[in-house]
Design a protein that fits this description.
Largest sheet of chain A: 5 strands, parallel
Largest sheet of chain B: 6 strands, mixed
Shape of chain A: elongated
Radius of gyration of chain A: 24 Å
Number of strands of chain A: 9
Shape of chain B: globular
Distance between the termini of chain B: 65 Å
Order of helices and strands of chain A: HHEHEHEHHEHEHEEEHEHHHHHH
Number of domains of chain B: 3
Largest interface: A-B, 51 and 46 residues
Number of strands of chain B: 9
CATH architecture of the largest domain in chain A: 3-Layer(aba) Sandwich
Distance between the termini of chain A: 43 Å
CATH class of the largest domain in chain B: Alpha Beta
CATH superfamily of the largest domain in chain B: von Willebrand factor, type A domain
Structural class of chain B: alpha/beta
Strand content of chain B: 5-15%
Strand content of chain A: 5-15%
Order of helices and strands of chain B: HHHHHHEEHEEHEEHHEHEHEH
Number of helices of chain B: 13
Oligomer: heterodimer
Helix content of chain A: 40-55%
CATH topology of the largest domain in chain B: Rossmann fold
Helix content of chain B: 40-55%
CATH superfamily of the largest domain in chain A: P-loop containing nucleotide triphosphate hydrolases
CATH class of the largest domain in chain A: Alpha Beta
Structural class of chain A: alpha/beta
């Protein structure tokens, strides 16, 4: 199925049905990305749900999620394709042993055959396939280097990949593509221009409560509200690594697993490690007073 | 396209406000407007945000231009030919009244002679304009190669590190299918990332220009360099320094740093760097050079905490302090004393020769020093 939502509301409803609650801006960006056939470039703090969106899109379309995790030094053999050289060598020896060594051309043709080709995510994304088109997730592109960016730009603009021994492979339908960045460095402007850009913010309080309720249905509503309020005030307290939505969900799940249906000082103390992963951050929040944090969260959560 | 007129007008208004809006993106924007329709303010707002804005820093400008342009359009109800020209700048409130206590202290620190009278070792604060020109030429000619680190990219090699199957197969094919020659490869190396944090406060004014010039030589001379100015706030300079003409680059830097020769809040700005850029990845495994005299009016404990955190992610911290060359100087000033335990190399920065020394220290890549 190709995703062809009629309007932004369609997108909101479909993503919500697949476990993702976008805000109005992100829903509009997704709608435009699908309508204009452009990749979506998501930038924002770690843990605001960038990768999760791609997964929700894949669930919605029913297509395969092709994930390319970037790292420094990533090159075409891990991003596009690689020949299975070990099998090629075996093939050569086998052909020789069977006395099949004909002309050099035949030998070469046999060697650079599709069965020896290992497809990596970018080639997989443009290859013809049965069924729904895949969702390509290029994750944390800021970790890759400039050379890789240039190369990615080429694939994202033409949706074609050239394997010298086989020829050019062109996608029939451009796949849905999501590129994410934590902004450890600025990605080249040309790549961003090719995409639709969206800066993902931490969700508002009410939305975060909805997200926790959706993703952790076992957590009682009152607890979800209190945890979301506490997470928001930790974010505002200037910690080094502000907790993302994923941490809020973990935290709520952890507190609920301990059998508590409300936040209190000792429970926060016991579960702080699920939401703050640096010793300095934990010390800072403890120094601010866990009881004060709980009291503030309860007031804000209301009900 | 019905939305083409307002799209072009809006793009012009954004350009007038200082955003970069290439024609290509305006076409996308017009298509996006067509897709979402002009009925809802929110949809129009987000259509523009996702197609015309590519950096979070540009969002405040976008918001202001959006409000003035579209809301005026809505009230007048007709697209105008020439959008109103408005100068829109980011709101830069400054609560720091470029205090004086720091400036008083360094007056006698600047008046300091180097013993040798050759220009290379002459204190930059004491150079005549002609001498400065010459010194600038010397700095421009500095080429920083910098330390290298192992990369994950491989290159062909005769060292038998790892079998290069791709070339082995290609050779075997040429030999009629027999892998006679084994080919080898080994990991290559690439320049280690270099991050320069330049203090541009009043107390550093005599040296800041030369140091930014040095930073320019570093940015254009090799890849993988990031430059930030530390003043009352943190300003990223990498893009401003990217042009090859050193004078043009410097002019562009002074105009992009709102607090050039103002005060310093060393603790705050280094903390800002660590939090917004450093630990996210920019400083990881990098050589970080801090060019500052270490005068800080803030709380030394805060600077110590930020330095400690920085030291845990970087490869090496080099602190360049122009005051270090003065006779009898000891790093006792609050900020400097707090930072020193986390500094791997502590070197002078008052003359061209000391910048050459810095280039050398960076090229050797070895750690050690005071830590």
């Amino acid at each position: 199925m190709r995703l062809d939502p009629k309007d932004v509301k369609d997108v909101e409803a479909a993503l919500a049905a697949n476990g993702y609650l976008p805000d109005a801006g992100l829903a509009t960006s997704v709608f435009l990305a699908l309508r204009l056939g452009r990749p979506l470039f998501l930038e924002g703090e770690a843990g605001v749900g960038k990768t999760e969106l791609a997964k929700a899109l894949a669930r919605w379309s029913g297509g395969e999620l092709l994930r390319l995790q970037c790292y420094e030094g990533i090159d075409s053999t891990s991003a596009v394709y690689e020949w299975d050289h070990a099998r090629q060598l075996l093939h050569l020896r086998a052909a020789e042993a069977a006395g099949e060594v004909g002309g050099l051309d035949d030998l070469e043709r046999g060697l650079y055959d599709e069965r020896f080709l290992i497809r990596r995510p970018l080639l997989e994304a443009v290859s013809p396939r049965e069924g729904p088109s895949p969702v390509l997730l290029v994750d944390e592109v800021d970790r890759a280097d400039d050379e890789f960016e240039a190369f990615l730009l080429e694939v994202l603009s033409d949706w074609s990949v050239t394997v010298p021994e086989l020829g050019t492979i062109q996608a029939e339908h451009p796949p849905i593509a999501v590129v994410t960045s934590n902004r450890t460095r600025d990605v080249h402007d040309a790549l961003k221009r090719r995409c639709l850009y969206h800066w993902v913010e931490h969700p508002t309080f009410e939305r975060e409560v909805e997200i926790v309720r959706l993703r952790a249905p076992d957590v009682p509503e009152r607890l979800a509200r209190q945890v979301a309020a506490a997470a928001a005030s930790i974010r505002a307290s200037g910690v080094y690594k502000p907790p993302g939505v994923a941490e809020t969900i973990d935290w709520a799940t952890a507190v609920a697993a301990l059998g508590a249906d409300e936040l209190d000082g000792p429970t926060v103390d016991a579960t702080l490690g699920t939401v703050l992963k640096y010793r300095e951050d934990q010390e800072r929040v403890r120094a601010g007073g866990l009881d004060e944090l709980v009291a503030g969260a309860r007031t804000r959560a209301g009900r | 396209m019905p939305a083409a007129d307002p799209a072009v007008g809006f793009a012009r208004a954004l350009r007038a406000a200082g955003l970069t809006v290439p024609p290509y993106t305006v076409i996308t924007y017009a298509k996006a407007l067509d897709a979402v329709g002009l009925g809802s303010r929110d949809r129009v707002y987000w259509a523009g945000r996702s197609t015309l804005v590519r950096r979070p820093e540009d969002l405040p400008v976008y918001d202001v231009v959006f409000a003035t342009f579209w809301e005026r359009l809505a009230t007048e109800n007709r697209p105008s030919e020439v959008p109103q020209q408005r100068a829109v700048a980011l709101d830069r409130e400054d609560d720091d009244s470029s205090g004086d206590e720091g400036d008083d202290v360094e007056v006698d620190q600047v008046l300091r002679w180097s013993r040798a009278e050759i220009l290379r070792t002459k204190d930059l604060a004491l150079c005549t304009p002609e001498e400065l020109d010459e010194a600038n030429r010397l700095i421009d000619s500095l080429r920083l190669s910098g330390a290298r680190r192992r990369s994950r990219r491989h290159r062909p090699s005769h060292r038998r590190d790892e079998l290069d199957l791709r070339r082995t197969v290609a050779d075997a094919l040429r030999a009629g299918g027999e892998p006679i020659h084994l080919r080898w490869r080994s990991a290559g190396d690439r320049p280690r990332r270099l991050v320069l944090l330049v203090d541009v406060s009043g107390s550093m004014s005599a040296y800041a220009r030369a140091l930014v010039r040095f930073a320019h030589a570093a940015v254009t001379g090799r890849g993988n360099v990031e430059v930030f100015a530390l003043g009352t706030r943190l300003t990223r300079l990498t893009a401003a320094l990217a042009t090859h003409d050193a004078d043009a680059a410097l002019a562009s830097v002074s105009s992009s740093v709102p607090d050039w020769e103002g005060g310093t809040r060393l603790g705050d700005t280094i903390g800002d760097f660590v939090e917004r850029w450093g630990v996210r990845g920019m400083a990881r495994g990098a050589d970080v050079v801090i060019l500052s005299d270490g005068w800080d009016r803030g709380d030394p404990a805060e600077l110590r905490a930020h330095m400690e955190r920085l030291a845990r992610v970087v490869h090496r911290i080099v602190w360049v302090n122009p005051l270090k060359a003065s006779p009898g100087y000891a790093p006792l000033a609050g900020g400097m004393a707090a930072a020193l335990p986390y500094v791997d190399e502590f070197i002078e920065g008052h003359a061209v020769a000391s910048l050459e020394q810095l280039a050398q220290v960076l090229a050797t890549g070895a750690g050690g020093g005071n830590r």
